[in-house]
Amino acid sequence: MALRSMDTLNVRGRRVLLRLDLNVPLKEGKVLDDTRVREAAPTVRALAERGAIVVACSHLGRAKGKPDPALSLAPVAPVLAKHAGRPVRFVPDVTGEVARQAVAAAKPGEVLLLENLRFEAGEEKNDPAFCGKLAALADVYVNDAFGTAHRAHASTAGVAALFSERAAGPLMAREITALTKVRDNPERPFVAVVGGAKISGKLETLTSLAGRADTVVLVGGMANTFLLAQGVAVGKSLVEADLVGTAKEILAAAAGRGVAVILPGDVVVAPSVDAPGRVVDAGRVPAEEMILDIGPATRQRIAQVVAGARTVFWNGPAGVFEKPGFAAGTLAIAKALADSTAFTAVGGGESVAAVQQAGVAANLSHVSTGGGASLEFLAGDTLPGVAVLEEGT
Ligand code: ADP
Ligand code: MG
């Protein structure tokens, strides 16, 4: 699958609707973490330097289809301007008269940033009338927001189909190239490390990885349900009792395909997340305590498996890493990936935060910015925002 590339579009003197992921955390009108803005800036700069009229747009937070001043993109415009190295004019409107006039007045090389797309009810509904109004603002469409590509929203799906000239931006292209390599063409051995709080929400991804990987390592809260499926008591640990049967099916399917599954052999337990932890064998979790991290022997085993891999995908922390006392397992996995010479990819909100906390992001082959989108892609799903950008569509 090849994506239409932004490089081949004729943008000089033309209006480009540029869908970005500028969904940043805000506090009292200040951008708390500008990572996404920093990453988006080179795309804005490249289009502007090629003489486009850049009409940038994004969603921010969970605006419910109506204006919410606390979720305005206004504070993001100066941050984008700083990183793009050119002025960015904020437009306090999405598709109304104010937006139309601002676009009409803009000159080649200028950059506009529209207000939060989710201030409009038509955005999440992928409403055709809203798509039409959004499309009328530009001549060409570029989507560089991988993190929302799994949503069939107006700005990601409906509007794209209305442009004959449309393409993926460089961030989107990089995500798809890296995740396609992991999913469809992994150099073997391919090791998948999956953790995080729960199985639910990751079921398809887990099933898919258990079918594609050579070894699946299960850690974090979700491993508890697998331990339970194997008849191991887990005390007061987080479990999804209703998914024990599903966990058994996944284990059986993996065994049938000759996929090795590694579950924690030792764990860190405590009566609560605020109590100090201690290491016990996975089979000896006290009835009144809970598993909050993987133990040192399991960390070492994972490091060995990762060291022998040629491709590693990791999603989901190995423990409650937000608490320093239960972060060692997660940080050990981050370090194992960083030390590996394999193609290493990480996806997921908390997992990426852990990689950054460990200070090893630069040593990984790919750090995916799209949590849900990367998992859906690895599950084998066609992402609506990506399908519409494929060559030949
Ligand atoms: P990601 O965002 O990387 O996909 P998830 O959202 O699935 O990851 O899970 C992250 C959360 O899982 C973290 O907040 C962490 O505290 C929690 N977690 C990990 N291990 C455990 C555990 N043993 N018990 C309870 N929560 C856990
Ligand atoms: Mg998460």
Structural account:
- The longest helix has 15 residues, at 35-49.
- The chain has helices at residues 35-49, 76-84, 97-105, 121-125, 128-135, 154-158, 170-184, 203-212, 220-229, 244-257, 296-307, 328-339, 349-358, 371-378, 384-387, and strands at 15-19, 26-27, 30-31, 53-57, 88-91, 111-114, 140-143, 166-168, 190-194, 215-218, 260-262, 266-270, 278-281, 290-294, 311-315, 343-346, 366-367.
- With 393 residues, it is an alpha/beta fold.
- It contains 15 helices and 17 strands.
List the helices and strands and how they pair.
Blueprint: E1 15-19, E2 26-27, E3 30-31, H1 35-49, E4 53-57, H2 76-84, E5 88-91, H3 97-105, E6 111-114, H4 121-125, H5 128-135, E7 140-143, H6 154-158, E8 166-168, H7 170-184, E9 190-194, H8 203-212, E10 215-218, H9 220-229, H10 244-257, E11 260-262, E12 266-270, E13 278-281, E14 290-294, H11 296-307, E15 311-315, H12 328-339, E16 343-346, H13 349-358, E17 366-367, H14 371-378, H15 384-387
The protein binds adenosine-5'-diphosphate and magnesium ion.
Residues 195-197, 220-221, 238, 291-292, 315-317, 319-320, 322, 348-351, 371 line the site of adenosine-5'-diphosphate.
In short:
The chain is α/β, with parallel strands linked by helices. The protein has helices at 35-49, 76-84, 97-105, 121-125, 128-135, 154-158, 170-184, 203-212, 220-229, 244-257, 296-307, 328-339, 349-358, 371-378, 384-387; strands at 15-19, 26-27, 30-31, 53-57, 88-91, 111-114, 140-143, 166-168, 190-194, 215-218, 260-262, 266-270, 278-281, 290-294, 311-315, 343-346, 366-367. The model has no long low-confidence stretch (mean pLDDT 96).
